Amino acid sequence: MIHLYYWPTPNGHKVTMFLEEAGLPYELHGVNIGKGEQFKPDFLKISPNNRMPALVDDGPPGGGTAVSVFESGAILLYLAEKTGKFLPKDVRGRFEVVQWLFWQMGNLGPMAGQNHHFSQYAPEKLPYAINRYVNETNRLYGVLDKRLADREFVAGAYSIADMASYPWIVPYERQGQKLEDFPHLKRWFEAIKARPATERAYARAAEFKTIPPTNEEARKILFGQTAASVRGR
Ligand SMILES: N[C@@H](CCC(=O)N[C@@H](CS)C(=O)NCC(=O)O)C(=O)O
Predict the structure, then answer these.
(1) For tag attachment on the chain, is the N or C end more exposed, with fewer CB atoms within 10 Å?
(2) What is the pLDDT of residue 233?
(3) Is 79 in the pocket of ligand 1 (CB under 6 A)?
(4) Which residues of the chain fall short of a pLDDT of 50?
(5) What 3-state class would DSSP assign to 18?
(6) pLDDT given at position 91
(7) Nearest CA, atom 5, ligand 1
(8) Phi, psi of 192 (to 5 degrees)
(9) How many angstroms separate the alpha carbon of residue 53 from the centre of ligand 1?
(10) Residue nearest to atom 1 of ligand 1 (CA)
């Protein structure tokens, strides 16, 4: 059985999208990040960066003891290797996917995350920070739109590179973006949204009651972190 330590955020959706596409049985374990459950010692053992998602596989390829993986990109790679799905085996096809997966992990995710932070959650509205991240998000949407101009998916057939980026486009309005400005991205977005596995993945989110990051207690937990937070204070 695969155990996914999860909360319904873009990085969590990436993994449920894969699991639903592959038809793998899995159990969701909620990590309520607004309540600080990401700092529980047992969770930190599998996810030392106090972030979800994290995955524990009781039945890893080749058998033996359970394997645990943190970081959503590494989790997608693990699941792709385990199932032989959504990641080509030939070196060229594989690294087309891997480089776009890393692009999402190092660019679209962090920049859109800071965009959400300064546009929606920061108690002060700082125009410099808001403009910086809204513009970077806009640039990255442009990169993806251009890439999708002459292909159906980001890298070959539908892959973990698409699953990594899609959930970060879902909140495009909150990121100050208009999909109409990016016609190829819009076509790709609508196609992935309509996939039955995507619908099933997002439906799982309803099982969890989230606390908005603007809630005073959640804000202290999420945005007041220092090294002391992971040392156990
Ligand atoms: N690079 C990490 C980022 C994960 C991440 O930022 N997760 C957020 C929710 S989307 C989280 O767990 N936040 C808890 C916290 O900030 O303490 C990944 O892709 O897995």
Answers:
(1) C
(2) 52
(3) no
(4) none
(5) helix
(6) 98
(7) 51
(8) -70, -40
(9) 7
(10) 71
The neighbour count for residue 83, using CB atoms within 10 Å, is: 16
Ligand 1 pocket test, candidate residues 37, 52, 114, 210, most atoms within 8 A of CB: 52
Give per-residue pLDDT as tens, 2-22.
999 999 999 999 999 999 999
CA distance 77 to 97: 10
Q: What pTM does this model have?
A: 0.97
- Give CA–CA dist 232/41, Å, rounded: 8
Q: For ligand 1, is residue 222 a contact (CB within 6 Å)?
A: yes
Give the pLDDT confidence of 93-119 residue by residue, as tens digits.
Answer: 999 999 999 999 999 999 999 999 999
Nearest protein Cα to ligand 1, atom 6: 51
State whether the beta carbon of 16 lies less than 6 angstroms from ligand 1.
Answer: no
Alpha helices in 89-182 (DSSP H): 91-103, 109-116, 127-147, 160-169
**How is residue 84 written in tokens?**
């032989």
Eight-class DSSP state of 23: T
